[in-house]
Amino acid sequence: MPRKIIIVTAAYGHDRIAALGGQHALLPVIANAGADGVEIRRELFSRTQLDALPELAQQIAEHKLQACYSAPEPLFVEDGKLNPLIPTLLLEAHQLNASWLKLSLGNYRSSQQFALLQQWLAQSDVPLVVENDQTACGKLAPMQRFQAACNVLNLPVTLTFDMANWLWVDESPEAAARVLAPSVSYIHVKAAVAHHYHYRAIALDDAEPRWLEILKSLPADAPRGIEFPLEGRDLTAVTRHYVNLLREE
After folding, report:
1. φ and ψ at 134, to 5 degrees?
2. HEC string of 94-153?
């Protein structure tokens, strides 16, 4: 079965999306490029667009795309408790007919909150995936502790592995892949280079081959999300190039 390629709308840039009038305008580009799905980003919505999730779900279905939903929210807030927004986010993901909801880990301290999270997840038909972000909470040690606790307590939460975010937190992507690969259900494909005091994401054609070795160490059947910059006059052609590249590799 061919591997699934998901396009993260943010790959086209906030300015381009705003100029087009919203993420829905990218659906023809993504579909015509041969991708399997689209990752919709909550932070790119206006208030009125957030109220129109069922309509967006219908448009995604009409383009024969799979939807997934990403919110810039942590699973655990600063005091170590669950983010009270999670039921709302699960409902929004359901309205979008999303295959999963993606959050960052946040300030995970212990599994004391797992019973409540289990309850919230049981009331939803949308699975939860947790991504390593570019904060200290996304370092390998907390991600590893969280996933170990999920396994022990049989909590149905898997990981999104962002291949480049490890660089922002001074971690080795290769080491993280060795440890976390069995729990990874979705991959954010991204390469990055040092830029001033941080990093910046770059297109795969401009990157060293390191990204490919990391990708090969992750589950071959996990959907691959394109989150690096997709730029150019012909967005469909640029997108198709990388869809084909990642489906073959």
Report:
1. -95, 25
2. HHCCEEEEEEEEECCCCHHHHHHHHHHHHCCCCCEEEECCCCHHHCHHHHHHHHHHHHHH
Structure token pair of residue 88:
């709302």
Tokens of 118: 């289990």
Measured between its terminal Cα atoms, the distance across the chain in Å is 14
Pairing assessment for the beta strands 224-226 and 184-189 based on DSSP bridges = parallel
In angstroms, the CA 24 to CA 99 distance is 17
CA distance 248 to 245: 5
Alpha helices per DSSP H over the chain: 14-20, 27-32, 47-50, 53-62, 86-95, 114-122, 140-153, 165-168, 173-180, 210-216, 235-248
**pLDDT tens for each residue of 35-90:** 999 999 999 998 888 899 999 999 999 999 999 999 999 999 999 999 999 999 99
Strand partners, 39: 8, 68
| pTM of structure | 0.96
